[in-house]
Fold this sequence. Notes:
Low-confidence stretches: none
CATH topology: Rossmann fold
Strand order of the largest sheet: 2-6-1-7-8
Radius of gyration: 19 Å
Number of domains: 1
Strand content: 15-25%
Amino acid sequence: MIEMPVITMDGHAGSGKSTLAKELAKMYGFYQIDSGALYRTYTYFILKYLNENNENEIISEEIFQREEINNLIKNLKINIEFINNLQITMVNNENIEEYIRTPRISENIKAVADNINTRNMVNDTLRNLAGKYPIVADGRDMGTVVFYDADIKFFVTASAEERAKRRFLEFKEKHPHITIDEVVDQIVTRDKDDEKRPVGALKPAKDAIFIDTTGKNIKQVIENIIRYLQGSTSLRIKNFLENISKA
């Protein structure tokens, strides 16, 4: 049996890493895994608990000092399924994707993603998936922490100005009077914050391949990534690509 290959794509917010991971999943039959969905799931159930107990609906670092919150996290049974090789998050046999993709979740996710307990549980879940499927994982620390032994690691970046252009309409929906320069400032601030996080900080792996998407369309970037895959010395990557070509 062919061992399952692992590709990681870390990078800055708005660099295009999730889009690239999704495209590779579609083209080659990799399974795209989304660590953010797991942190969003923990965030959703913590907020749900607080709401049901008429408590403040803001998650802070201090909240993880509470025994009932840690028990809630520990006992939450999250199951990952895939539809067309894309990840679907399930809890108690219910697809909860629509509940975890809201602004309220986004506003509270940082403390959850920075908590060492939730981080360890998410990392364990992702590693278990890698034992079953050929995966492409995008995030901040996929190639440095979660899959430090991945077959091939990419670090995706783009200029702050380029990423601001991509995110401008999204930002403008929330803040109609925002300017492109303000979006650039927010992105630069986000970069610094991601690079200084206490756990899961954004940084390239020592053996990462840098992919700059500035001024390039998805087709151009994917063609570049494919060249790296085809030139990979990893036996798992080689065997996987050969298996695809024979199918």
